[in-house]
C-alpha cells in the first residue's frame, strides 16, 4: 500500500484536489456572523424569550457613542455635537426612532400648582440659541435628576452618552450592521473635523458584531 | 526484474529515505517518545483547571484596537455598553402597582448595584420615586416610593359656625391608589418611559441593569447571586428570567 502511494503520489494529489473542487463552488456563498447570538437557534426558548421581551419593552441591541471633552460636556460645541448625533440616529431606518436617548432629546418632569409637567430637558429654542443661561439650566436639571446624573452624563461632567437601539429585525443582519457601522463612522469623522476638541467613542453591542465580522474575513 | 528496478527507484527517493530514518528513530527511542508524550499530557492536565469559559467579545480585539479603546472608555466613564435585563413576572394584573412589590424591587436593584460588575440600574421604581419627588415640590423627603397607606395633607376653607375658616385636612389613601394615579398622571401629560419598564397590564416588569464589563463569567456570577435573593424576597409571588445576549452562552 505504501509503495502504491509513493509511486502514484502526484496522481493522488491531483485526484484529491479534484475531489475538493466541487466544494469550492459554494465558497462565495459563505457568510460570516460573529455574534454569539448566532450560536443559538432561533427556536431556542432563550432566543424566543429575548425576542418577546424586545417586542414588549423595546430593542436591547444598542449603538453607544460616548462624547467627551476636556472642557466639559456643558459647552456649546459639546451640546451641538450631541444634538447632531442624536438627530442623525433618529433619521436612520435601522434605528428605533423612539429609542434614541441623549441629553438633547430626553424629557424632564416638574410640577406647577400641583400639576405634573413633562417637557424636553432642553427645548428646541434653547437648543437653537444655546446661550449661557440655557446651558446652565440644562446642567442644573441633570445634576438634580438621579435618572440622568452619572448615567447620561458622567459624574465628572466631561462625558455624555448617546444610545440608539437597533430595531430587532436588523440586529441579526450582518450586512445591515456593517452598513450602519460605516454610516456612523462617516458621521463621527465629519463631526471630529468640525469639533476638534471633542472625542467620540463609538461602541455598543450591535456594533461589536460588525467589528468582529471584519476579523473573521 | 521489475521489482528490483522499483526497489532501486524507492531507495533513491529522498522522501523514502527521510521517512525510513524517522521510522527507525521512533522505534529506537520508543520509550523516550512515550515518556515525553506522557509528560506533555500531564502538564496539560494542570492547564485544564485554569480553563475559563469567557465570551467577552471585546477581549477578542487587541488592546490598542480603536473599538476596544472606545468601549473601555465608555465602560470607565459612562456605565458601560451592555446591560442585563431582569424580567419579573407577577401572578396577577397590577402586580407592579403594589407598594410592597415595588419596595422589594427597589431592594433587588440596590442588591444588584452592590456588585462590582453593575454600574447602575433603572426600573419603574425610579420613575415613581421621581414623580413623587416632583409632585411634592422637590421635597427630598418624598424621593421615595409610596407607603402602604399615604397621608395627604391639604388645607381648604370650610364654613364653621357661619364663618369661613381655613382648615388643615388629612386624607388617607392606599399606596396602590397613589401609584396608579401617579402613573396615569404621567402618561396623560405625555410621559413615554413607562412602556420601557412594565407591560400594559402591570404584570411583567423589567429592571435594566447596566454592566461595566461584558465578561460572561462575571455575569454568570451575578445571576447566580440574584436568583436566591429574588426567591427569598419575592417568596414565590413572582418568577424571574434574564435577558441578555451573553447570558445564553
Walkthrough of the structure:
The complex is a heterodimer of chains A (217) and B (249). Chain A is of the alpha+beta class and 217 residues long. Helices cover 47% and strands 19% of the residues of chain A. Chain A has helices at 2-7, 9-24, 45-57, 76-91, 124-129, 132-143, 174-194, 205-216; strands at 62-69, 95-101, 107-112, 115-120, 159-166, 198-203. In chain A, the strands form two sheets. A four-stranded antiparallel β-sheet of chain A has the order 2-5-1-6. Chain A has a two-stranded antiparallel ribbon with strand order 3-4. In chain A, helix 7 (174-194) packs across helix 8 (205-216). The longest helix of chain A is centred in the C-terminal third of the chain and has 21 residues, at 174-194. Chain A starts with a helix and ends with a helix. Chain B starts with a helix and ends in a 6-residue tail after the last strand. Chain B contains nine helices and six strands, in the order H-H-H-H-E-H-E-H-E-E-H-H-E-H-E. The model of chain B has no long low-confidence stretch (mean pLDDT 89). Chain B has a four-stranded antiparallel β-sheet with strand order 2-5-1-6. A two-stranded antiparallel ribbon of chain B has the order 3-4. Chain B is α+β, with helices and mostly antiparallel strands. The radius of gyration of chain B is 34 Å and the shape is elongated. In chain B, a hairpin with a 2-residue loop joins strand 3 (149-160) and strand 4 (163-174). Chains A and B meet through helix 1, helix 3, strand 1, strand 3 and strand 4 of A and helix 4, strand 1, helix 6, helix 8 and strand 5 of B.
